[in-house]
Amino acid sequence: MKTIKIKNLLALALLSFTLFSCSSDDDKPVEEPVVVTPEPIVVSKYVLGYQTDTWNENYMWSFSSLNDIMTGTIDMTGKGIEQGGSYIPIANTMFALSTDDEGAAPYYLNAAAALVTGKRVFIESPFAYGVTEDDKLLIVGASWEGASSNNELIVYDPEKQYITSRKFNDFGTSANRFDFPTGVTVVGDKVFVSVFNRDASDNWDIDQKQAYIRIYDYPSLNFVKRIADPRTTAAGMYYTNTGIIRTDSGNIYTFSSNAMAAGYVVKEDGHSGILRINKGQTEFDADYFFDIQSSSLNGKVVAAYPLGGEKAYIVYIPTADDTANWGFLNHSSFKFKSAIIDLPTKAITPVTGLPSHAGDSYFGIGSLYYEDGNAYKAFVTNDEVRVYKINIATGAATAGAKVTGGGTDIAAITKLTHTTPATTTTAK
């Protein structure tokens, strides 16, 4: 019996110890997992479009630094990505519009900083394009050669890679006359489309009596009204999107050339000029008109490119040299000059160190890129094609890389980025 009691007591002690041990383990505080949340990873590359003499032998090339286009030569023949068509760099995307392919090819940057193409977007004849304040691409599609006045407004989301809304609107204004889009921008809940008014014949009888703007609601794309201003002539130019810009303040400026170089019949009593629509307004500012022909430039503004803030880079032609019809859209005339305009104050900074040059040959607003106080653009002169860096504050131009190897121009320059979102990792 004594032995049995001892065994029972020992068993009881062991049981108690075991229960105590389990109870002690359960009472220990539970360690929370370690959560690591790194910052988003952002990669970026610069991208340019290399234009050759052959429409469908153009090339897209990505590079790491703007210094790469400021020395040596740029020869993309057989290099980079061969992609025919015209290039539109906008909304963190480089679009390639080729008439030989169905739809536009959007190029993006992936996490490895490589150019990749997304899903094609069917866009018929995008004669005007701009970016909204919520980073969507807005396009005005018009029929080639104005065969129809029924145009389409399209909103494309580059993040989702599809068209989020589209609406047709008749740009007809009277029997056999209609508005043709030359540029578009968006401020707040309004879309502003610069247009010229023309007849339906092949003669392109363009109304030079006033500057015209069509206004739509955003994002509904419903037509609101059409406004006009007789102080200058038709705003913008065919296929270049250089006739209307939105500045950082949200004000809108339109640019009217009254120039043969832009394809217009010159209005003898009209002057090339800049108009303004103030933020939140849907009428031209009656107190603002910048008469370029009467300014120290003594010329006609043919194209304008935003430079950030309230400034614009303009290409103009001296009035005495405006003798070649459509001279801006080909490389037959080398009499164009450049200047930087502070739009609110109307202060002019002539660009120095840049030879007289040709026009853009349909390349338009995407052919100029600005960053950190400098603008970068390729110019065709009588002797060569070369990239120039222009100091926005002083107007001083510095010659950069020469374009060789059959390249006729740099049609577009932009910077693309890819952001990998922050991730949450639970430690084991």
Please give a structural write-up.
A hairpin with a 5-residue loop joins strand 8 and strand 9. The longest helix is centred in the N-terminal third of the chain and has 25 residues, at 2-26. The radius of gyration is 30 Å and the shape is globular. It has 1 helix and 32 strands. It is mainly β.
Defining key terms:
32 strands, mainly beta, 5-stranded mixed sheet
Please work out how many helical segments DSSP would assign.
1
The N- to C-terminal Cα distance equals 53 Å
Label the structural class.
mainly beta
Share of helix among residues? under 10%
Strand content: 35-45%
Q: What global shape is seen?
A: globular
The largest pleated sheet is described as: 5 strands, mixed
Read across the widest sheet, the strand sequence of neighbours is 4-30-29-28-27
Rg, alpha carbons: 30 Å
Count the E strands. Answer: 32
The poorly predicted ranges are 1-26
Q: Taking all residues together, what is the mean pLDDT?
A: 88
